[in-house]
Design goal:
Layout lengths: L19 H8 L6 E2 L6 E6 L3 H18 L5 E4 L2 E4 L1
Length: about 80
């Protein structure tokens, strides 16, 4: 299954949590993403030459997230953006 072709479906309080096997299998399909220690959230750190590039990328991610109705946690700093 090509994950890039799927549409995001908003979570609700009743959305089941993925088990570690499904998380592991899906991580194999996406480049350099990791799962946090609690096995509850995937994330990826994107590195850039400077803050301007990092914020430009973050804003693009924000536009895509809004159009998908999915709103990830984002951490932004000089030369990086972490998408969770």
């Amino acid at each position: 299954m090509d994950l890039s072709k799927l549409k995001c479906e908003a979570c609700s309080g009743k959305t089941p949590v993925l088990d570690s096997e499904r998380i592991s299998n899906n991580l194999k399909k996406i480049n350099n993403w990791k799962v946090n220690e609690e096995q509850k959230m995937i994330f990826k750190k994107f590195n850039f030459k400077n803050f301007k590039e990092a914020i430009k990328f973050t804003n693009i991610v924000g536009e895509i997230a809004e159009s998908e109705g999915h709103h990830p946690d984002i951490s932004l700093g000089w030369g990086y953006s972490i998408i969770m």
